[in-house]
């Protein structure tokens, strides 16, 4: 068993930065778990604290039921792959992979054969005598993975392992990583700032902001039912539209339009209540001719995304912003807000057009 449990985990760096703020999180045995969030939100700190490379200021970490909060990294049975791979430049691929076995005092012969076996599994057999400088980025990444795998740890910790690869190689490595994790079944915590990567790879995702977890769920849950406007704005290939709205009986008044209340909302909201209406650009339709009751506005920008275009319209109403805590703005409704719509090929308007 190698579930990971964090309780009120806090890390305050010297100088006072609170990188982890009483964070609670449970990662199940065998899970491929993504930590997702903007730069500086504490992802690397959380990974390093699980690994024992940072000492927690308060709270606890358990791995497989064992309290490891005060154990050194070598006693935690975890392996970490760093963002820059951290390979030893003067060592061959074979010696790099075998290095953790040497630290564990495994004898030279079995070290060599274990390194060769792991290299074989990762398609590195032909490269054992090379040095990191003689490898491509993708190959270096595999060596870093092989080095982590050689000891058969209970837990893999991967810090943005794909971020140094170019776009095409990145997709290839992503598929490879997913297959490898399936085959090994090892509990894996994967850090990324790329929401598409997290959605594609993970069994579950934790979305972080400012040293805290804002939501934990499956890719479908965080995409379809974001728990707050931060998650809503962070997940998705285009940010969700967030517009100030007011409940009117069984309808929602949104920037001059009247919409039916979304599923699940009736009974949970009261007449006159102000709330934030969130809808993804993919789920809105664009019409060049008037549609009664629909949002209407002026087309400001049209961005070609390949098979579809992203159209930004300027509509009357207040932008709800990305903060839960901010006030809902004044009551005048005199502001302007930008609403984005995904429009299929052939139906794109021109800037300056009016659309519904
Ligand atoms: P992420 O990996 O999500 O980008 P980090 O965990 O690296 O975020 O950093 C979280 C916060 O802690 C940031 O504000 C960062 O500047 C700060 N931080 C990280 N490492 C240190 C350190 N060694 N000393 C002081 N502050 C640090
Ligand atoms: Mg980081």
From TrEMBL:
It comes from the Bacteria. GO terms for molecular function: ABC-type transporter activity; ATP binding; ATP hydrolysis activity. This is Carbohydrate ABC transporter ATP-binding protein, CUT1 family. Residues 4-235 form the ABC transporter domain. SUPFAM superfamilies: MOP-like, P-loop containing nucleoside triphosphate hydrolases. It comes from Micromonospora chaiyaphumensis. InterPro entries: AAA+_ATPase, ABC_transporter-like_ATP-bd, ABC_transporter-like_CS, ABC_transpr_MalK/UgpC-like, Mo/tungstate-bd_C_term_dom, NA-bd_OB-fold, OB_MalK-like, P-loop_NTPase. Pfam families: ABC_tran, OB_MalK. Keywords: ATP-binding, Cell membrane, Membrane, Nucleotide-binding, Translocase, Transport. The lineage of its organism: Bacteria, Bacillati, Actinomycetota, Actinomycetes, Micromonosporales. GO terms for cellular component: ATP-binding cassette (ABC) transporter complex, substrate-binding subunit-containing. PANTHER family: MALTODEXTRIN IMPORT ATP-BINDING PROTEIN MSMX, TREHALOSE IMPORT ATP-BINDING PROTEIN SUGC.
